[in-house]
């Protein structure tokens, strides 16, 4: 039974990565995580983070700063954030090299040496993205704005702990 579970898990990882590749890089050849070089894994991770940062800043500006009434655009941005964020666990499943890092990576070694703490922070981030999306789906702009602010603060804290400068 164990080999079947491993096969299903590997297939799920490959499927998620293929979706990330198509989402981020357009029509390119689908690859599994095992087929990517450490530098390619880092590049995909950075692409996801850049897209998250851009979308999150726009959502925060619209919902928190401008107090938008364009609920449809805010919902669209929140859904995109959830989709992008869900790629992160797959892209952080292993260090980019045996030493845990490649030159281009901004991930601090603590991502792997303190992996329990990092995974907890990442899961909290994913939960917050889901809550923002949920608040906006229910039209609760004020609650979404509050959660966006909480998330922005947690992003800064996580980056201080797990990102090199």
UniProtKB/TrEMBL annotation:
One of its GO terms (molecular function) is iron ion binding. Residues 1-30 form the signal peptide. The keyword Methyltransferase does not apply. InterPro entries: Cyt_c/b562, Cyt_c_II. Keywords: Signal. Transmembrane segments: none annotated. It holds the Pfam family Cytochrom_C_2. It comes from the Bacteria. One of its GO terms (biological process) is electron transport chain. This is Cytochrome C. It comes from Terasakiispira papahanaumokuakeensis. The lineage of its organism: Bacteria, Pseudomonadati, Pseudomonadota, Gammaproteobacteria, Oceanospirillales.
